[in-house]
Specification:
Elements (H helix, E strand, L loop, with lengths): L15 H19 L7 H28 L5 H21 L3 H45 L1
Helix pairs in contact: 1-2, 1-4, 2-3, 3-4
This protein binds fe (ii) ion.
Length: about 140
């Protein structure tokens, strides 16, 4: 039985909108993992796969907008990382011969695209927010 993707507390950034979207990405990924025989349920499998693609896109746009709003200094680098993931997803879809093969490859890749990205890249955003908060506090103290 393939391993479902596990959302853990350390994935939480403390930004409600982004955290909820990340959890939804896990949920869609797990729905795909749950298919025992994708070829037998091809329409549903393809629908969910397409949904994952669309939602990854939408979520990345949201996240990038948020980063822009808080003037995240590594935005360009982060956008590039998102771009690589999108290209990898598209590449994977093009390179496979059957839905079963696609599912096998997805199982390996989804963790990297979703969980690893959150834990390594999105987590840096959390550090930036702490710095911004500190700065605001300092400004407030000196302004008094
Ligand atoms: Fe991200």
């Amino acid at each position: 039985m393939p391993e479902r993707m596990k959302w853990t507390k350390d994935c939480r950034l403390g930004i409600d909108q982004i955290d909820s979207q990340h959890r939804l990405l896990f949920a869609i990924a797990n729905e795909l993992i749950d298919f025992e025989n994708p070829a037998e349920e091809a329409p549903e499998f393809k629908f969910l796969l397409n949904h994952l693609r669309q939602y990854v896109n939408e979520h990345f746009k949201n996240e990038e907008k948020f980063m822009q709003d808080i003037q995240y200094p590594d935005l360009d680098e982060h956008i590039q990382k998102h771009q690589v993931i999108i290209e990898e997803i598209n590449g994977l879809l093009k390179g496979v011969k059957s839905l079963d093969e696609l599912k096998d490859r997805l199982e390996i890749q989804m963790n990297k695209w979703i969980k690893e990205h959150i834990l390594t890249e999105d987590k840096k955003l959390q550090e930036w927010i702490q710095i911004v908060k500190k700065d605001k506090d300092t400004v407030q103290i000196t302004a008094e």
